[in-house]
Amino acid sequence: MFQKIICLFLLFLVSFSNLFAQKTTAPKLVIGIVVDQMRWDYLYRYQEKYTADGLNKLLSKGYVCQNTQIPYVPTYTAPGHTCIYTGSVPAITGIVGNNWYDKNLNKNVYCTDDNQVKSVGDSSVAGIMSPKKLLVTTITDELRLATNFKSKSIGIAIKDRGAILPAGHSANGAYWFSGATGKWITSTYYRNDLPSWVQAENTKVASDKMMQKTWQTIMEIEKYHESTEDKVSWEAPYRGETEPVFEHQLEAELMKSPDLLRALPYGNTMTLEMAEAAIKGEEMGTDAITDFLTVSLSSTDYIGHQFGTNSVEIEDTYLRLDKDLASFFSFLDASVGKGNYVLFLTADHGAAHNASFLQTHKIPSGNELSDSLSKKVYDFVEAEFGTKDLISSIINQQIYLNEKLLKGDAAKTNAIIQKLSQYIKTLDGVADVVDLKHVNDATLVQDYKTAITNTYNAQRSGNLYIVLQAGWMDDFTKGTTHGSFYKYDTHIPLIWYGAGVKPGKDYGQIYMTDIAATIAAMLHIQEPNACVGKPIQGLFTK
Ligand SMILES: [Zn+2]
Q1: How far is the CA of 115 from the centre of ligand 1 (A)?
Q2: Distance 482 CA to ligand 1 centre (A)
């Protein structure tokens, strides 16, 4: 009897310790999908035409954050992708634009340029890239750290910055598209050769290219009720075309350069095919250690810039993307398995409506500002202070004064700032000018002050930020652009779907910075080191 009790007690101890030793289950694969320039309203504007298995599947079975906002300027691709994966803002991440003025090098630099590395996969300059200018960790870095580098992190996008910044410093790979050669490439930062699965995709793209002779609408063009007439004056034709209308004739231009592929719906198709190839080729999501695939769909941005937010081209692009996503989701179910993965879909920024389009409907707007504004600013400084050289650069709506020439002369610096601000405020389309070192002194709505403060990095930012009026665009008479703190640029889609996600809708205030914090909570890992976001409470099943 006594022996029996001892045995039972031991059995109890063993099972008790097992209970505690058991590790919390995490999804095998996390997939981040960023749709470049996807406005939040595209989810609903075309919803009736979406298939049941694409975006509608996410809307009905996912956790939909209806009010997700970007808390900084400029709302561009590189700061957006960086914020999503770091949970932090340009002031801290250092990614203050796609390009910015480098005060030491005395020139504008690009966010992922790195002349210490070489292109892998072709010999173009497109591969001279790395995440070196990013100053903080990403959620993908934190996952690698948490698993003692046993998890895999891979980034894929047509745009180099859309692949490199999300995948993190410690990524296993990042692959982007070289327009000159039509190949998926990487850099020596990651590895010295292309994996065979990437080489196979390159062969496929080369043969697919031959199929992209024309772009016709996926439905009869009369059914595109959500869009303007196809032929309007504010759209830009592709190179080699005389008018921006369907059926787009692409063959001649594609023969000259495969670069055009990035600005076609096919660009999204080939990106999602690369994503599938990465999952298979790298055996992602096959064991208990969570892997992370970051995918950015860049073609939506190129097409948006060219044709604008209300074009038949944009509607057709989203209908095709929806079908591509449906096929990607069914691939994930079949290969990784339902319940084994979690994904989120969001955007790096939205986009404004074209100013000419708005004006035809009497809505306040304007454009052609940037070039003429820069010229006016340089001319003013020359007339007032004797030389244009007092300004080093005007970029990201910021004016960089020439600190070397000013040699710390505070009185002169202040005089320039005062006179220049007064002058710029008199110009059409300008709402205000903010002294970036004294943002809190500005008389400005608090949200806008916060957005500007969140971009100020002492090393990489300028002296003055020019606030445009709502509806005014920076130098895009055709198509559209983005970059402001107005809602058309800052309101982004955010949907979570898969393992551990409770279906539902959230109308509360959520910020782009909350995405990385939420993934960290989901995976039970540390958030990125400069994360300022909070986990989204409502989406967790337990
Ligand atoms: Zn863009």
Answers
A1: 24
A2: 6
CA distances from 292 to 52, 142, 236, 528 (A): 26, 11, 37, 14
pLDDT digits (tens, 9 = 90+) for 69-81: 999 999 999 999 9
3-class SS of residue 403:
helix
Protein residues with C-beta less than 5 angstroms from the ion ligand 1: 301
Q: Could you give phi then psi for residue 107, rounded to 5 degrees?
A: -160, 165
* HEC sequence for 353-370: CCHHHHHHCCCCCECCCH
In one-letter notation, the amino acid at residue 395 is I
Residue ranges per structural domain of the chain: 29-205+255-350+486-539, 370-427+430-468
Instruction: Give the distance (Å) from ligand 1 centre to CA of residue 461.
Output: 20
Residues forming the active site = 77
CB 93 within 8 A of CB 135: yes
Residue pLDDT, tens place only, 410-439: 999 999 999 999 999 999 899 999 999 999
CATH second-level architecture of 370-427+430-468?
2-Layer Sandwich (3.30)
Full-model pTM: 0.95
Phi/psi of residue 514, nearest 5 degrees: -80, -15
pLDDT in tens, 170-211: 999 999 999 999 999 999 999 999 999 999 999 999 988 878
Cα 533 to Cα 523: distance, rounded to the nearest angstrom: 16
Residue pointed to by tokens 């956790």? 63
Task: Please determine, for residue 143, whether its predicted confidence score (pLDDT) is greater than 80.
Answer: yes
Distance CA 330, CA 332 (A): 5
251's tokens: 């063959």
For residue 387, the one-letter residue type is T
**CATH of the domain spanning 29-205+255-350+486-539:** 3.40.720.10
